Amino acid sequence: MSSQSNKEPLLKKISRGLTVGSVITGSTFFHGPPVLALGLTKLVKKSKKVDETNIQITNSWLSVNNWLIDHVLPDTKWDISIDENLNLSMQGRYLMTCNHQSWVDTTVNQYFGLTRMPLTRFFTKWELIFIPFVGQAFKILGFPMMKRHSKEQIAKNPELKHRDMDEARKACEQLLSQPFTLLNYLEGTRFSPEKHAQQQSPFKNLLKPKAGGLALALNILGDQIDALVDMTIVYPDGAPGYGEFWLGEVPRIAVNLRKIEIPAWVHGGNYEDDPEFRERFQQWVDELWTEKDQLITDLKAKYQTHNVA
Predict the structure, then answer these.
(1) Maximum distance among all alpha carbons in the chain?
(2) Which domains are assigned to the chain?
(3) DSSP assignment, residue 149?
(4) Which range, of 128-132, 143-147, 174-178, averages the lowest pLDDT?
(5) Measured in whole angstroms, how far is the alpha carbon of residue 163 from the centre of its chain?
(6) What pLDDT is stored for residue 3 in this prediction?
(7) pLDDT tens for each residue of 22-70
(8) Sign of the CA dihedral 102, 104, 108, 113?
(9) What is the pLDDT of residue 150?
């Protein structure tokens, strides 16, 4: 992090941390129970009105975080660029890909998208459902929750793989009744130099992309979405921890949004059972990742130039 944050008085950091922690905790206890209560009514009867109300409550929940970012973390500078061919709407239907470096990525996505795009859901681990309020809200709001099984578990019980895919398919299909943004972190985990070296990733700034989730989403939703959007997040001063972000120790964040054209051959393909399609799809994703890798390199160079200047 920057030397400026290191020079900040300790008392000011503590005060900011207490303010942020108190507000986020209070907001969670204020917004969480209504989401859960309304979600329980869906066990009796599904209701579009209940879904819309829950989204409104969730957006209010997120707006508190955004208020904190704007008013308690005013020293964080944002550089947001959007492809001129990308016309975002609160009533749109979007699939989104993004690089993944920190828990802060999701907060960045929510900060950007709250007033520009429908509520963002993302593929998440089933284990998160045990986080009070937040985990249950993920399930109620239609986040695709995946149970990650090891190769050994799947080898012993191949049905586990199909069961997971069926759950993801149902979650995707349920989104079609409303505007949505469905985010997929293609790397599957947060970037680190250790993971990068272990994978022997061919990309300078990224881990290898896992194309299966995107293929599934495009198979189910592809002809009914308004755009495939690629978000790139760069932290010029290094990827921060969640605590560092909320303590105001992230001087700069760069966000780039671009529209990805979906080739006609992608629609209707069978990623799971067609080896030729799977190889072609993975190659296409690798090409997108190569472009993204260069974009990250260019953005980092831009800020290094600014630092020298």
Answers:
(1) 62
(2) 76-308 (3.40.1130)
(3) -
(4) 143-147
(5) 23
(6) 46
(7) 999 999 889 888 888 887 787 667 778 888 898 899 899 999 999 999 9
(8) positive
(9) 64
What residues are paired with 98 via a beta bridge?
185, 231
pLDDT tens, residue by residue, 100-127: 999 999 999 999 999 999 989 877 777 7
Single-letter residue type at 242: Y
Q: How far apart are CA 266 and CA 172, in angstroms?
A: 17
Q: How many CB atoms lie within 10 A of CB 71?
A: 9
Could you give the CA distance from residue 286 to residue 203 in angstroms, rounded to a whole number? Answer: 9
- SS3 for 12? helix
Order across the sheet with 120-122: list the strands.
Answer: 77-82, 252-260, 227-234, 93-98, 180-185, 120-122
Question: Assign residue 200 a region: left if phi > 0, alpha if psi is -120 to 50, beta otherwise?
Answer: left
Strand partners, 183: 96, 122
Cβ contacts of 104-110, under 8 Å, gap ≥ 24: 104/235, 104/239, 104/240, 104/241, 104/242, 104/245, 104/250, 105/185, 105/233, 107/65, 107/69, 107/242, 107/245, 108/233, 108/253, 108/255, 109/183, 109/231, 109/233, 110/62, 110/65, 110/66
d(CA 249, CA 290): 30
**From the CB of residue 241, how many other CB atoms can be counted at a distance below 10 Å?**
14
Please report which residue ranges of the chain form alpha helices under DSSP H. Answer: 3-7, 10-41, 48-71, 104-113, 134-140, 151-156, 159-174, 193-199, 212-221, 242-246, 275-308
CA–CA dist 171, 143 (Å, integer): 7
For residues 244, 248, 250, 255, the Cα torsion angle rounded to the nearest 10 degrees is 110
For residue range 173-206, what is the model confidence (pLDDT) as tens digits? 878 888 999 999 999 899 999 999 999 999 999 9
The CA-based angle 219-143-278, given to 5 degrees, is: 25
Residue 295 DSSP class: H
